[in-house]
Design a protein that fits this description.
EC 2.4.1.135, extended, binds uridine-5'-diphosphate-glucuronic acid, Glyco_trans_43, binds manganese (II) ion, alpha/beta, transmembrane helix, metal ion binding, transferase
Amino acid sequence: MSRFSRMSSLQLFVLIFCTITAIWLTMQFVVFNTCWHAAKYVPTNVQSLCQKEQNYLLLRVFEIAKGEPQCIKLLKIFEKTVNAYGSKPKIFMITPTYARPVQKAELTRLSHTILLVTNIHWIVVEDAENKTALVTNFLSKSRLPFTHLNVPTPPAMKMTKEDPNWLKPRGVLQRNLGLSWIRKHVHPDEKGVVYFADDDNTYDLDLFEEMRYTKTVSVWPVGLVGGLMVEKPIVKNGKVVGWNTLWKKDRPFPLDMAGFAVNLKLILDHPEAAFSLSVPRGYQESKLLKDLIRVDQLEPKADNCTKVLVWHTRTEYPKLKQEWKLSVPSNLHMEV
Ligand code: UGA
Ligand code: MN
């Protein structure tokens, strides 16, 4: 007689019950425990958080591994593999910035927009002789993947509060330094797009998803610029055939810096394409784009340029009349 047939039906029931419970507990541990663990870190958007954490952690590890060429080499291979799995092309966003009373407020607002964008690398370039403590500390607590650079605009070319010479260009050398960094550090196989985002504009989150898949140079309307409610490319049958621009409308590319993005490969394939301190105001965009593309090759975005997803907002210079009267500044030892 077999052992099972000698058991009472109660014993058999207990045995089956215990076996099922054991299997169930094992499943709980192996399967549910991992899900539960992951859920703690992924409360809302799985993809965006994972990607951001990856970028952030990689940058931190690169920082720690400085001066260890073997580690850096391995990390680069690892980074490439991770990026190859990331489905979305990366946005390289270059932002020139300069010290003024509203600088931290502008950067704070802009950084909160970027925090909501996946797979983006922020290249912040200070118009300054040295990197400032304000921007350095700001970026390190921003929780964003970033690169911090600096280059001063020569004093003769610099616009000041007392002498706001409208002919002087802004952010030119800073954007060029951002481009050089990209050409030097970004892997040629990386899929991506380059965008020049001034620190004072207002950006709709949809704009980033529009520009992300740019094949050559994409364009879209910009609100509140050039003396109009909206400056926009005129699109016929999916092609740009003109512009509604009125300010300096004879420019080869009469659009604002906020109104276009360039495919990363195009930037890497044209090392000569850059901005210049010696072109007249308003011609920076044309200076860069004429080396990269013809107007009829532009890719219209934002529903064939029918939507405004970025505004050329400009922040009023704050009224500090009372401040100038003080012998001790109101913000002594206090960053504003
Ligand atoms: C317009 C365009 O939107 C800019 O893209 C263009 O650079 C600029 O004209 C120009 O004349 O070159 P606007 O609002 O007049 O922009 O310029 P700002 O917003 O004052 O400056 C553009 C960017 O350059 C900002 O990110 C700003 O922080 C930075 N900047 C400005 C500097 O780095 N240094 C400066 O001395 C001034
Ligand atoms: Mn501006």
